[in-house]
Amino acid sequence: MPFLLFSAQLKITALNATGSKANYAVRITFNQNIKQSDFKKYTIKAGIYYDIKAELTLKRRSFKLGNNVVTIAQFNKNISRIVIETKSPKNLNFNINKNVLTLSFGDSADSAKSSAKTAKDTAKSKIDSKDSASSPIANLFENIDPKAIQADSKDSAKAAKPATKPAQKPTPKQTESPKATTIDSKLKDKIIVLDPGHGGKDCGAQVNRICEKGIVLNITKKARDILKERGYKVFLTRSNDKYISLTARTKFANDKNADVFVSIHANALDKKSKNYKTMNGIETYFLSTARSERARKVAELENKDDIEVMNYFSKLSFLNSINSQRLLASNKLAIDVQSGMLSSAREIYRNTTDGGVREGPFWVLAGALMPSVLVEVGYMTNEGDLKKLQTKAYQDKIALGIANGIESYFVKNF
Ligand SMILES: [Zn+2]
Prior knowledge:
The chain folds into 2 domains: 2-144, Immunoglobulin-like, CATH 2.60.40; 153-413, 3-Layer(aba) Sandwich (Aminopeptidase). It is α/β, with parallel strands linked by helices. The strands form 4 sheets. It has a 6-stranded mixed beta sheet with strand order 14-11-15-18-16-17, with helices on both faces. A 5-stranded mixed beta sheet has the order 5-1-2-10-9. It has a 5-stranded antiparallel beta sheet with strand order 3-4-8-7-6. Helix content is 35%, strand content 26%. It is built from 16 helices and 18 strands. The site of zinc ion (ZN) has 6 residues, from loops.
């Protein structure tokens, strides 16, 4: 992946406990190569900590290595902090290999003690964020603004609870359990983040004083209710009329360890477009650098509410966020969601136009670490679509279609 070498924004993309019995370690994986001078070291009474200009794309985590505790958290908007609580700082091994920092404790009493444990014990000994918050090092993290890392205050309250799901997806081997698990129960663990577009000061598309933000919020809430009823874990980036930046939306999904991210919008054409009044129907987009004329126009419309984001993501880090496996999964998700919406909408409007699955450079999808799509549920600039979009019947059908599409993606791919 050549883009990794040139990415502008350093990110921590994985945290794992690894190592053999003789030497347990914490692996901190970055999105690009790192070097010793990237880390600022501080010695404190409780041990050592390191600051690095990087974004932690995962939840804060603590690991126990013998008698030592390693905690990785976002300190502020720019800095991630690695705190090592230890009585024997001299035994810390700080090894950098390309984009991975490995922390372990050398041939000491500590590692000898820990070597008696099995790998399973180490995994279990992970301390959840609630516990470590009350530890003596808690003040090292007090600068962390929960609002900076959570998009929705209502949902962030839930996020403060210990994670029920590991940040790293376990490999199939690790998930093997002697108890038989039905497909159903496996699917119910899936986490879905739904993102109603725009909100607050950002009305989205506006036609005859009708705002996109309200229509898409109704649809999103309905889709949430349907999916929750089926047993899925569903979170909304917003559940009321408030403004959220584009980057906060995907960050929220990443923090929730979501399995899919679906951003919900209604379309509108510029008055200068020749199809201004006639273009209608449903479309689903996934993120890529492909720039068809139509995708470019929709992307322009959906990107414009957050100008800062253009500075935040340099073009290269934007490319960096496109991983070919995720692109393929997003394409599959887009196909299922599009066909779900179409067949549901056609139950009441048989002539609903299939705008198809398209790809484009959507900033709102750029930061997501999971398969993610953006749906356009109709054209507000088309009289027929606008009428439909305002009815509960159509909103409910679209919501059902989105829910069915997500579910069918899960059934096929997990
Ligand atoms: Zn929109």
